[in-house]
Specification:
The chain has about 200 residues and is α/β, with parallel strands linked by helices. The protein has a single domain, classed as P-loop containing nucleotide triphosphate hydrolases (Rossmann fold). It is about 35% helix and about 15% strand. Strands 2-5-1-6-7 form a five-stranded parallel sheet, with helices on both faces. Strands 3-4 form a two-stranded antiparallel ribbon. α1 packs across α5. The longest helix is centred in the last third of the chain and has 20 residues, at about 150-170. The protein is globular and about 50 Å long. About 30% of the residues are buried.
């Protein structure tokens, strides 16, 4: 029987740098001779979700946890051939093919880990922290440019929905974290050690 692949969960509040950290970790793992597969919880938003009256989309219930768990479980067994894909602009759902072999899985997201931390066999949970002003700047840059939302909408949504949602759903994840990261460079070293990976010597 083929052993299950390691799965690392990268979580934390919106715009804390999870996607950037996951990409940096992916490159570092490749330098160690590993083949990481990235799975984003943002691809598992429900297609027919009606925004929560208080939290909007900033709630764990907005995530299709059954679809996320099914894809993650298949990937952990090395059997996933496609992954879910969610378009933030149109809110349409599709599938994307996995085009490369993989031997370690990186799951990153603000909402989604809440459904998994109590019973899914993660190899570790990593929690990223960042200040609210810096996260607001990142949200403005990302959502205005990539998601075609107005600055006014981004600011209103952050303070009325996102921050209350974080206090309720995301901050409790910190208690499950093996590593809490405030500096991504030093955090990268910690997480590589957690996964038992070291750079390959090509000399």
């Amino acid at each position: 029987m083929t052993p299950a692949l390691p799965v690392l969960c990268i979580c934390g509040p919106s715009a804390a740098g999870k996607t950037t950290f996951a990409a940096s970790l992916s490159r570092a793992l490749q330098d160690c001779g590993r083949q990481p597969l990235l799975i984003a919880c943002d691809d598992y938003y429900r297609q027919d979700w009606s925004p929560h009256p208080l939290f909007g989309f900033d709630t764990a219930d907005a995530i299709d946890d059954q679809a996320l768990r099914a894809d993650l479980s298949a990937a952990r067994q090395g059997q996933a051939q496609t992954l879910r894909l969610y378009d933030m602009r149109t809110r349409r759902v599709d599938r994307r093919p996995i085009q490369q072999p993989y031997d370690v899985i990186l799951l990153e997201g603000a909402y989604g880990p809440q459904h998994l931390v109590n019973d899914f066999p993660f190899s570790g949970v990593v929690y990223l922290e960042e200040s609210v002003p810096r996260r607001l700047w990142r949200r403005l840059r990302r959502d205005v440019r990539d998601r075609h939302r107005s600055p006014r909408y981004v600011i209103r949504q952050m303070f009325r929905e996102m921050l209350p949602g974080e206090r309720h759903f995301i901050q409790p994840l910190k208690q499950s974290a093996a590593v809490v990261i405030k500096d991504q460079a030093s955090g990268l070293v910690q997480v590589l050690a957690l996964l038992g990976s070291a750079p390959v010597d090509n000399d």
